[in-house]
Amino acid sequence: MGDGNGPVLVLGGTAEGFDLAQRLVGEGVRVITSLAGRVTKPRKPAGEVRVGGFGGSKGLAEFLVGEGVLAVIDATHPFAAQISANAAVAARLVGVPLLRLERPPWRPQPGDRWTYFASVGEAAAFVSERGGRVFLTIGRGGLELFAGIERAWFLVRCVEPPTHLPPKSKLVLDRGPFTLAGEEGLIRKHRIDLLVTKESGGSQTEAKLTAARRLGVEVAVIRRPGPPTGVERVERTEEAVAWLRARLGAAA
Fold it and tell me: Is the pLDDT of residue 91 over 70?
């Protein structure tokens, strides 16, 4: 597939971005994966790696032109709304094809007790009123909104140490994929009665939802932000590869 005339930029940091880079490099495509740099020791994807921000949509547009980027595949986390918005603006400014590769969200199954919330703030307000023993799995972003909650006890899981923690909490530093047995063990050990999660999707962290279903634990689900308008989207790596083949073939 590769033609040597320029790279493909993958906005990564997810399992999908990692798999996509490996697949494309294996097919002879020059790939630059951009990582935000929020994780100290990220998995290094195949191809070239760039760490850090671009300086907004203007900086990203300049990078696309300067590197001669042939296409951009945005495979960032479903909640990385700002970089996705910047990518949409930058690609449109310089006329580079852009695809959004986004894993499908989880869907409730029979036996689930899910309540959806539009934002982390809404979920925090719900927990503040409800109380209980909470398994908080939203990452570091937004933890400050739970920092003043006194009525609940929290089991907080993050990849990296957070800046803010609720006053009554236990911190677990861990990275997926997580097993069903492990998630059930955590929930039982800490007598969890509420799981708070973002609508991330994917198999890496889905076991907590299965565990909650099996143990009858209530789940607060924070909905994803809306995607940028006018950007083509696919849900599977194979679809992204096919899209890129078509774009590079047309440009040849």
Answer: yes
User: Which two tokens mark 149?
Assistant: 């909650």
Peptide bond into 177 cis (omega under 30): yes
Q: pLDDT tens digits, residue range 51-90?
A: 988 999 999 999 999 999 999 999 999 998 999 999 999 9
Instruction: Give the separation between CA 194 and CA 47, rounded to whole angstroms.
Output: 41
Backbone Cα Rg of the chain: 20
8-103+228-251 homologous superfamily: NAD(P)-binding Rossmann-like Domain (3.40.50.720)
Q: Tell me how far the alpha carbon of residue 56 is from its chain's centroid.
A: 19
Is residue 173 within 8 Å of 112, Cβ to Cβ?
Answer: no
What mean pLDDT do residues 168-177 have? 93
Checking if the pLDDT of 4 tops 90, the result is no
Q: Long-range pairs for 120-126 at CB < 8 Å and ≥24 separation?
A: 120/145, 120/198, 120/222, 121/145, 122/222, 123/196, 123/220, 123/222, 124/149, 126/220
Q: Does domain 114-222 have CATH number 3.40.50.150?
A: yes
